[in-house]
Design goal:
This protein is α/β, with parallel strands linked by helices. It has 2 domains: 214 residues, Isopropylmalate Dehydrogenase; 120 residues, 3-Layer(aba) Sandwich (Isopropylmalate Dehydrogenase), CATH 3.40.718.10. It is built from 13 helices and 12 strands. Strands 3-4-2-1-5-12-11-6-7-10-8-9 form a 12-stranded mixed beta sheet, sandwiched between helices. β11 and β12 form a beta hairpin. α5 crosses α7 and α9 packs parallel to α10. The longest helix has 18 residues. It is globular.
């Protein structure tokens, strides 16, 4: 059991984040969940619980009081943002609430008052309309850490489940932009952070990295594109030279059956869907988004806001519960040091 609570952000208020948070709290004793507190509007959360037909007493707290309150009430650290969004209908309060909760949570975890950070899903299109400049959660967290520490941070998104773990080297890009964006240096930097955090956070003595090819059949020795020979293969060579157990480029279409998965700890995938399709096929309801490269643990459910079912009691809290459990597990390992940006 962790000695400090987990900080949970409200996410997009009109989505299912508030739903799965309330559902998880209701199962806290049954599932022996780690203590957590929510950063958000307590009156909004109480209203959502009533809409779901759940008995969820709310306790307004500061983080130090979360563990004591958790057995009998959902601890909520209030923000100075009143949320007016209804289920499935984001409004002008959505983006300010989501952003303020993330900022507060990062401050709490970096100050040591929270053990780790668990973020609920955000709606990127809602944030973009408010002027939000970052591509997503992962990049925004790195920016906040840089603001507070004054040191450059490179964050990496890993999707983890007991069945498979994957890392998209390029993330939220149109497919046509991937070949121009993918570089040997980007793959090397991602692989170094992955190997470091898998060792330090996950306790894997010698992490095994499988590196997928960009093109079908990993390029067929140049017949189906030259990127695997000219960009991916040199990156694998550099990772191996660093002492990292890395193999590739490997054909992506044969990387995810059971026997192949037994041969590695994580796959470095070259683009978003190459990574997310297999993990969402194998572990849709319990995969977890983990941010590597940060000075603290951050996990998140591996799904979106699901506006169509928000407030209906149809949301599945499985991925959120897995995110809570993984965050608590990872905090038991030593905090990672910065990964050197070697040439």
């Amino acid at each position: 059991m962790i000695s400090r609570p987990l900080a949970v952000t409200i996410g997009e208020p009109a989505g299912i984040g508030p739903d799965i948070t309330c559902l998880a709290w209701c199962r806290r004793a049954e599932l022996e969940l780690p203590a957590f507190y929510v950063i958000g509007d307590p009156h909004f959360l109480a209203k959502r619980a009533r809409q779901l037909g759940l008995e969820v007493p709310i306790a307004e707290i500061v983080p130090d009081g979360a563990i004591a309150a958790f057995p009998s009430a959902l601890p909520v650290q209030p923000l100075e943002v009143t949320v007016t969004a209804e289920p499935g209908r984001p409004d002008a309060s959505s983006a300010p609430a989501a952003i303020a909760a993330i900022r507060r949570a990062v401050a709490d975890v970096m100050a040591g008052t929270a053990a780790a950070l668990v973020t609920n899903p955000i709606a990127k299109n809602v944030l973009y309309r408010s002027g939000f400049a970052e591509p997503g959660h992962t990049e925004y967290l790195a920016k906040l850490v840089e603001e507070r520490s004054g040191e450059a941070v490179y964050s990496v998104m890993m999707l983890w489940s007991p069945e498979v773990a994957v890392i998209p080297v390029t993330i939220h890009l149109p497919l046509k932009q991937v070949p121009q964006t993918l570089t040997t240096e980007l793959i090397v930097r991602t692989g170094r952070i992955a190997a470091h955090d898998l060792a330090v956070r996950f306790g894997i003595a010698r992490p095994r990295l499988a590196v997928a090819g960009l093109n079908p059949h990993a390029g067929e020795d140049g017949a189906l594109g030259d990127e695997d020979r000219s960009v991916v293969a040199p990156a694998v060579e550099r990772l191996v030279a660093d002492g990292i157990d890395a193999h590739g480029p490997l054909p992506a279409d044969t990387l995810f059956h059971a026997a192949a998965r037994a041969s590695y700890d994580v796959v470095l995938c070259m683009y978003h869907d190459q990574a997310l399709i297999p993990i969402k096929t194998l572990a849709f309801h319990h995969a977890v988004n983990v941010t590597l490269g940060l000075p603290f643990v951050r996990t998140s459910p591996d799904h979106g806001t699901a506006f169509d079912i928000a407030g209906t009691s149809r949301a599945d809290a499985g991925s959120f519960i897995a995110a809570l459990r993984l965050a608590a597990r990872l905090t038991s390992h030593a905090a990672p040091s910065a990964v050197a940006s070697r040439p």
